[in-house]
Write a structure and sequence with these properties.
Low-confidence stretches: 1-20
Largest sheet: 12 strands, antiparallel
Helix content: 10-25%
Number of domains: 1
CATH topology: outer membrane lipoprotein receptor (LolB), chain A
Mean pLDDT: 87
Order of helices and strands: HEHEEEEEEHHEEEEE
Oligomer: single chain
Number of strands: 12
CATH architecture: Clam
Strand content: over 45%
Shape: globular
Amino acid sequence: MLCAVLAACATPGTIPNRPAPGTDAWTLHRTAVAAVERFDVEGRIAIQRGGEGGSAQVRWHQDGPRFELRIIAPLGRGTAVLAGDADQVSLLTPDGARYVSRDVETLMAEHLRWALPVAGARYWVRGVPAPDAPVQGLHTDATGRLRDMEQSGWRVSVLDYTRAADLDLPAKLYLTRGELQLRMVIAQWTPVKP
């Protein structure tokens, strides 16, 4: 299954990039997409770190800063559920254990052995940078959609887009930080416009 997910994602270098400081298309696209603070996403994620890897289904519900992220392992290995907001997050593991922390990345790293910065990723999954951190190397395509950037130590590449609720939203993402690589294929978007 991991091979199938990885094969479904191209490498970020295959999409031509161009700088996008202040382009009208980027500004319009970013503003429209960033306004969608409530959404549901269903898809698959492949995780690779060094020689280790795995894959899972993902169901992500976001409502402003509140979120619930279900990570469903293949072959009946269970579901991990992360839920919380900017102040606190809980993790329910497949074996029924529950952990609580103020930091989602630390909680995930300790119990899942990989981590996603949900506070930033809730923007990245929509194809826009988080508003509270500097961005480097921002590139868009000709229609103003994000293709590549670096933020908070992560490289974020959007490899493909889909259309949902009259918005162009990412269908394939590739996130890297150090040796950790996350490939996400989004099968269904349900954005709720303000």
